[in-house]
Amino acid sequence: MAAELDAYEIAFLCGGPDRVARAALVALCADGRITISDEAPYRLVRTSRAGHHPVETSMLEKIPTSGLPIKLVLRTTADSPVVRRCAATLIEKKLLRRSFRGWVGPSRTGEEERERLGESPSDDAVARFAAEGVTALPEGPLRDALTALPPEPEFPFKLPKAGKGSGYDDRGSYGDSGGGGATGAGV
Fold it and tell me: Where would one find coiled-coil regions in this protein (predicted)?
């Protein structure tokens, strides 16, 4: 039985937090909400504030209209609470497993889902990129910029434990806004 996953969950399952940030960049460049310079050093410029998903909104909030280097935007997005909540959702769906030391990697079911996603590419460009990575992109400035970046790290990934550090909470969901995340309510 295939899990119902959005493009950003697919991205985390197939490539981790860096792939999630890169998938958001693909989505935002596809419809012009972000533009990318034609040559290195690559800069991103925000042309719209409208995010259709919390990961996109998180990325858009980081980019001023004057622009920022692509590496900075991708790193801060990959490290954001909304991307960590994506991991928590995959843990809830039993597609990722987490060690007691905070390392996260695909479960057996997650490995099967990754294989299924690789065998049946999506018609949606962002979901296809999420599953396959940069090879799914057509030639152009976006593919050139992503190819010029260091490769995405491979599983396992280290995530902070629930309630520790940067506001990560295993119970979080995509619908949570970043504004109320620092309440520190202890149980």
Answer: none
- Positive or negative torsion for Cα 104, 182, 20, 94: positive
Query: Which residues are CB-neighbours of 101 under 8 A, at least 6 positions away?
Result: 158
**Count of CB atoms within 10 A of residue 63's CB?**
23
Q: How many angstroms separate the CA atoms of 141 and 179, rounded?
A: 34
Global pTM exceeds 0.70: yes
Within 13 Å of residue 7, how many CA atoms lie on the same side as its CB?
Answer: 24
